[in-house]
Amino acid sequence: MSRLATPELTDIDAKTQGTLDAITKQFGFTPGMFTALAANPAVLEIVMGLQGSIAKLLDAKTRHTIALATSHANDCDYCSALHGYISANLGGMSAEEIELARKGGSTDPKRAAVANFSQQVIETRGQVGDEDIAAVREAGYTDPEIQAIVTVVVVTLLTNFLNNVNDTTVDIPGAGRGTSDVVTEPAVTGSPR
């Protein structure tokens, strides 16, 4: 059970409800994380703004790979399940790719490097070694793209921390309670995040 109070739908102001309606339209359901964040509309707005901003960074599968690797490394069951759902249903990633990303890998060498680097950023608290930078560069990432990778990691950490503090109940269709769950529900319409 979630530890922080989630507002009743009747207590949510019209602007915040509009944000939740847009989320519901995108995902086909309203993830409980967003309803919980509606308790503080400014926090919900910040999270949504950051999510919208990182959509401009890198390609969608790379962002999904980073989010999966980060959520797994940070032991966030909720985000691991949600990003699994998004990756499968909005991002076109296979169950194998989702599981590999969670473990810091990929069948694609460039995405494997980004997944591994993302987890190194978490494990070292950003104090990665020269060899970590060299490996991600060798995979084909430029220095501005490395900045983008770190940005996606940090934005993912924000939602990881919010959900870990809350112990948000995993309410993602097809997901169980573990980070190894791969969500493969029928596709819903919406743009990849």
Lay out the secondary structure.
Blueprint: H1 14-27, H2 32-37, H3 41-54, H4 60-73, H5 77-89, H6 95-102, H7 109-123, H8 130-138, H9 143-166
Helix pairs in contact: 3-9, 4-5, 4-6, 4-7, 4-9, 7-8
Radius of gyration (CA) equals 16 Å
Number of helices: 9
Question: What's the overall geometry?
Answer: elongated
Label the structural class.
mainly alpha
Biggest sheet overview:
none
Helix content: 55-70%
DSSP strand (E) fraction? under 5%
Distance between the termini: 27 Å
Query: What is the typical, i.e. mean, pLDDT?
Result: 90
The low-confidence runs, each spanning 5 or more residues with pLDDT under 50, are: 177-193
- How many beta strands in the DSSP annotation? 0
User: Would you list the SSEs in sequence order as H and E?
Assistant: HHHHHHHHH
